[in-house]
Amino acid sequence: xxxxxxxxxxxxxxxxxxxxxxxxxxxxxxxxxxxxxxxxxxxxxxxxxxxxxxxxxxxxxxxxxxxxxxxxxxxxxxxxxxxxxxxxxxxxxxxxxxxxxxxxxxxxxxxxxxxxxxxxxxxxxxxxxxxxxxxxxxxxxxxxxxxxxxxxxxxxxxxxxxxxxxxxxxxxxxxxxxxxxxxxxxxxxxxxxxxxxxxxxxxxxxxxxxxxxxxxxxxxxxxxxxxxxxxxxxxxxxxxxxxxxxxxxxxxxxxxxxxxxxxxxxxxxxxxxxxxxxxx
Length: 280
What we know:
Blueprint: H1 2-16, H2 24-31, H3 35-46, H4 50-68, H5 73-79, H6 85-96, H7 100-103, E1 130-135, E2 138-148, H8 154-163, H9 166-173, E3 179-186, E4 191-199, E5 209-213, E6 216-224, H10 227-245, E7 248-250, E8 255-259, E9 270-279
Antiparallel strand pairs: 1-6, 2-4, 2-5, 3-4, 3-8, 6-9, 7-9, 8-9
């Protein structure tokens, strides 16, 4: 229940600061985890990014004010953090489908995004296979791209690496016949360095970035089924069901997805998710 309580405390903090500055560092302190990790967990559990949730809540409350008060559009825009009425109008229309001025009229349809509430749901009808692995340090090599929760370019990056021969080169220098997707952690802006790589013993690989991963304890989960949507669903269950009830806390090392050969659209496609952890 502690994780659920922290999630709801974050939501309370956001609600109390919808019309002033929301400090992401404070959110991290409330959640008792790095802000980037919290943003990723939030996105996986809710299906939207934290920044998008905040945007929806601000524009929901802005619509209420426009319809129920005589406030000017520019005053409402400034109140909810927009520097100009034009920027506010673009964001408002994207959510509600109409302009703020139109929203002040009677008999106008608007959208309302209610406040989130997290509750403990009793599940367990579908098992989660996992194991605990102690690993010494190891070296990885690959190519890195910067992605974000708002603009996830990782699928396109994988396609590029397959087409330009990167994957073939990785398999030539790899210790094992599986490739890695390594997530180095999201920063306060929701951006993340992501590597398409492989475990290797080679000292220097031309045009590749090498990363040494320190000795750590890992939780290893199985994702079996078509990569889309199975992999995302598995991540959601890890953050939404397993970790909140476990004795483990995610460490600050990169997480890894191990991709084995096979048809990514098949019902038995196998991926392992490796999460570095420490005991709480």
